[in-house]
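Could you please consider the sequence and fold following this short note?
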Amino acid sequence: MKVDYHVHLEEGPYSLRWWSRTAEALLAFRQPAHHRNTLAWMEEVSAGMTRRVQQGAYSQEWLDLYRTRAKQLGLIEVGIVDHLYRFQEFKPYFEQHMHLNQDDELGKLQRIWLDQVCTTSIDEFVSFITLQQAIWAEDGIALRLGIEADYFPGGETVLSPMLSKYPWDHVIGSIHFADGWGFDNPETKERFEQTQLLTLYDETFHVIGQAISSGLFDIVAHLDNLKVFGHRPPEEELAFLYQRIARLLKEHDTATEINTGLYYRYPAKEMCPSDNFLQILHEYGVPITTSSDSHFPDDLGSHLDLARNTLKRVGFKEIATFEKRKRKLVEWKTE
């Protein structure tokens, strides 16, 4: 069962790096008529990028690239889940919980980041994906509507009404902040050097446990993404945390994912969860799905063959799929 349940259409910030990476994604599917690096070629690329920027991420032209890639890979189900912090309706939620103090560099940097990435409307996202589902179904692919919502302790009063308002197929909970610090931001990674790692892991895994216990989420994502830049205590010191999380996932009947994003996009060069963590999740019987965490169409499905083989090697015999927030476990033999 080839599925990818964690796929983004856009994020920002809208830097020259973003422009270049988006242009690369377009070129992966459509080569200009003119020779590469000629002026005519650049004019054609620039025209394509102008159209992409003007249309935004919620255009059929952009989403069709994801559909093309999904067909190439033989994916059966694809879940689009833009980040909650992209939506202006939830900017106050992040302002309440992020460190945005303008008296220090972290606060200033994160204030700029939030203003750069929070650009669109959740209603626009939901209506766009919903309208596109029939088009994907004609190709035999189920396009699932999802959301990736950052969990903060005490955030249930904001998240719960949002989750019940829209027709989600799956809701992903995730942790990207430690005491208000966005730890996966490359511009703030030096803070790892100033932190006692085991304490950081203990505190952050406690919040992951709270997210699981909230009952808000169908999937809790990339459980050990604190390792994003390679900062991790010896794993034997983390086993008790892995077991705590596995026990809570089982107790609250919540799934997780094997996420390849860190493997191909970040210095950690390792999937989430680690092999040791994955083994513990299997021992506890935690349901799991597969995710590329792609942010561009040419990354859709990246390294999911490796992820599936890893799951089989560890002993997982089923993959979790979702529709209308109902989970279904599909055995490998039905592929």
